[in-house]
Amino acid sequence: xxxxxxxxxxxxxxxxxxxxxxxxxxxxxxxxxxxxxxxxxxxxxxxxxxxxxxxxxxxxxxxxxxxxxxxxxxxxxxxxxxxxxxxxxxxxxxxxxxxxxxxxxxxxxxxxxxxxxxxxxxxxxxxxxxxxxxxxxxxxxxxxxxxxxxxxxxxxxxxxxxxxxxxxxxxxxxxxxxxxxxxxxxxxxxxxxxxxxxxxxxxxxxxxxxxxxxxxxxxxxxxxxxxxxxxxxxxxxxxxxxxxxxxxxxxxxxxxxxxxxxxxxxxxxxxxxxxxxxxxxxxxxxxxxxxxxxxxxxxxxxxxxxxxxxxxxxxxxxxxxxxxxxxxxxxxxxxxxxxxxxxxxxxxxxxxxxxxxxxxxxxxxxxxxxxxxxxxxxxxxxxxxxxxxxxxxxxxxxxxxxxxxxxxxxxxxxxxxxxxxxxxxxxxxxxxxxxxxxxxxxxxxxxxxxxxxx
Length: 454
Ligand code: PFF
Fold this sequence. Notes:
By secondary structure, the protein is an all-alpha fold.
């Protein structure tokens, strides 16, 4: 029985739409400020090597697993496990995913709000003639203020809601098809600018020179955590998107294309950022500081900076938007299918609830910064729990589910839709999801929590 037609569920209408939406989910803030920085810090090509290993051995098979679970069940993550494993506890993996989605979007929306504010700053030329110290204090004052960042965060949440509320075809797919090509064009323009600056080479070597001495245990856990975060894995985003993919599509090919696109764009972002930073003799800073303090400093010295600065922050906002819609959709699909809400009410309700948590995140940078747990403020706590704990755990269970619970026959049935089956590929896939992915996640995870010492 085709549940899709029975329930009149919305779906993607074209293959390009599927890829644009899934790559849109994967390519986000993570690619643009997090990947370049952690690559530089943990040994350039040495880190890249480990990251690519995780992407191929763990990321790709889990992405395919999520697509399969989604397309097979045609449900939100909670409903998907309930449908495929009735009466079991697997559904709690889906529920954990919905929770992780809400947590991630709460802090993600805050950073995306900052990037809208910086689009406006760039357009009004407000970085000009500011000293590095002034740029830093203006960023710090801004994120600590109780009003302006909240307004931009809410504006971003409204934009996300505006796209999700109209549905898959007319909202998520339509906008991803416009925004993703725009993003690629912008990043290429920025790459050309950066690589043609004098002294660009040093930035490339920061990014690519393999320095294995910098590759610590922490770096390896970061590589795993980031593989999950960057590919949008472990919380059912791609289960949800998978549930809107039609039977004609070849899931293996789509997973491969999305993974390659995400990795390429992360590398292109590094190439846009570091050569420019080093060309002006600036020390790259970590995390949000890289994008919101270092880069404004770079742009104000760069020939044509008044043009490239807004372009960069538009890129950041667009990347964040195509990711945030995928995160909100997880919660919306859950609300519509499990709580029987109409799409409109589900979207409004999810946006309001997540925005409230997001406002607390934003305030935890300033007036609420003294409320900490394990030394983390609320923002960092949500980031840490969701990205470092919930996503790898979710990924672990998803791979165990496909490898051990669903089993070979159902995997073959799903993979053979839209393509002819390649026996050795199926064998490798099953081996990866049964043993390699869960084993590697468990080791890296326990090591990161300090259980071993290598
Ligand atoms: N992949 C996005 C990024 O790299 O910014 C973030 C993200 C989206 C994480 C969707 C998780 C998710 F389910």
